[in-house]
Amino acid sequence: MDAKFDHNETKVAVIGAGIVGLMTALEVQRTGRHVVVIDPGEPGGRQAASYGSAGWISTSAIMPVSVPGLWREVIGFLMDKSGPFVIRWAYLPRLLPWLLRFVWAGRNWKRVEEGARVRFELCRHTAIDHKNVAAEAGVSHLIEQKGQLYIYRDRSEYLAASVAWKMRRRFGIKFTELDDIDLHELEPNISERYHFGVRLDEGCHCTDVKAYCEAIAELIRKRGGEFIQTRATGFEILDGRLRAVKIANASVECAQAVVTAGIGSKELAAAAGDHVPLESERGYHVVIADGGNTVTHPIMPADGKMGITPTRQGLRVAGQVELAGVKAAPDWRRAEILRRFAPSVFQASFASYKVIDQWMGHRPCTPDDLPCIGPAGFCAGLFYGFGHGHAGLAQAPATAKLLAALVAGQEPQCDVSAMSVLRF
Ligand SMILES: Cc1cc2nc3c(=O)[nH]c(=O)nc-3n(C[C@H](O)[C@H](O)[C@H](O)COP(=O)(O)OP(=O)(O)OC[C@H]3O[C@@H](n4cnc5c(N)ncnc54)[C@H](O)[C@@H]3O)c2cc1C
C-alpha cells in the first residue's frame, strides 16, 4: 500500500467497480481521501450490470417499473414466455415477498409521483455530470448528446402513455413531439410502421460503457487510488464502528467504506446487519454489427420495450426483465426475443446484419425502485450506494456526490431520507 496514505482514517474502501462504485471512488477522492476499490472483476467488466446496460444517460429516468394496474399483468408474466417481463415459476415462492412489495409500491399515482421526485434529484444533472467526468478522464467522445427517441406506431399509442409524459413535463423535462414526417427525417431507417415519436432533448448515451468505466478507473489510479482484485466477504466491526473490510484470508483496514456492489450488495449489507429486499431484474442484450449505419439516436420502440443504442461495437439491443434469482443460468431465449424484434424496428436491410455478442446481467432492484443511499443501519463508518435498478448509469454521478458528502460528514446536496436502508 502507498506509504503516503497509511492513515486509516483517510482511507475509504469502495466495494464494487461498476459505474456507481467508480463514480463514488472518484468523488470521494476529491474530498482528499485515499480510496481503495475492491472488486473481483475488472472495472465495468462483463460481471457488472454496468457493462451490459443500454448506455442511456437519461435526465428523465423518473418512472418506476411498478405502476398502478401492474398486478393485473402478473399472471401473464408467469404464463407468457415471449413478452418483455417474465417470472420463472420455480422462483416464485422465494420471490413472492419482494413481488408483493413491488406491486404495492406502485399502487397509486400519488406514490409513483413521490418516488419520481426522488429519482428526479438523482438524474436531473446526469448529462452534464457525465460529460464533465468523461472530459476529465479524456474520453469525451464516448458520451454523445443527441437526445433519446421514443417511437410509437401512432399518436394514440403515445397518448396511452400520457400519464408518464405529463409527469415528465411537470418536472420540467424537455421533450419534442415528432409527427410522421419529422420522425423519418430524423431517422430515415426507422420502419414505416412507426408514425409518431418523442425526443427527450437533453438525454445522452454512452457508446462504450466498458471503455468509459476503464477510463474512470485509470483516472482514479492516476490520482493515487488503489484497486484490489478480490471479493469483499464482510466487515470487522468493533463497538458498532467499522474497523476493516474482510477479503479472502485478509482484511483492508479502514474507518470508512462504501458498498456499491450492485446485486452483490445484498449479501454485504446483511453482513452488517441490514436485510434489504434486493432482487435481480435480470436483463439481456444482443449486439448487432450494423456498421454504424442504422440510427444516430438511441431508440425505444413502445411496442418492444427495449433500448436500441448505437455503440462503438454495433447496435446494442437491451431489455427484458426476468425474475429468476441470481444463480439461475441465463435463458438465451430472452436474448433471442430481442434479436428477433429488432429488424422489425428498421427498414429491410437491417435483417441481414449479424449478432456479434449476447449478454445477461443483474439489475439491482429494490421493490420501490429507489436506491439505498446513506449510512448503514448498525455500523458507523459504513455507507450504502446500491439498488439503482434500471437507471444506475443515469443515477451514478448524483449518487457519488451524495456519498462523498456523507463520507466527509457534510450535508448532502439533497434529502436522502427516502433512500435510507432503514425504510425496509
Ligand atoms: C439490459 C440492461 C440495460 C440497462 N440499461 C440502462 C441504461 O440504459 N441506463 C441506465 O442508467 N441504466 C441501465 N441499466 C441499469 C444499470 O446497468 C445498473 O443500474 C447499473 O449498472 C448498476 O451499477 P452498479 O455499479 O450499482 O452495479 P454493477 O455494475 O453490477 O457493479 C457492481 C460491481 O460490484 C462487484 N461486486 C459484487 N459483489 C462484490 C463483492 N462481494 N466484493 C467486491 N465486489 C463485488 C461486481 O463484480 C461488479 O463489478 C440497465 C441494466 C440492464 C441489465
Radius of gyration: 21 Å
CATH superfamily of the domain at 1-64 and 112-144 and 204-278 and 366-424: FAD/NAD(P)-binding domain
Strand order of the largest sheet: 10-2-1-14-21-20
Overall, the morphology is: globular
Helical amount: 25-40%
Quick recap:
With 424 residues, the chain is α/β, with parallel strands linked by helices. The chain has helices spanning 19-30, 49-52, 74-79, 92-105, 109-123, 126-136, 155-160, 162-170, 180-186, 209-222, 265-271, 333-345, 392-407, and strands at residues 11-15, 34-38, 56-57, 85-87, 143-144, 148-152, 175-178, 196-200, 204-206, 226-228, 232-238, 241-247, 250-253, 256-259, 279-289, 299-301, 306-310, 315-323, 354-365, 372-375, 382-386. The longest helix is centred in the C-terminal third of the chain and has 16 residues, at 392-407.
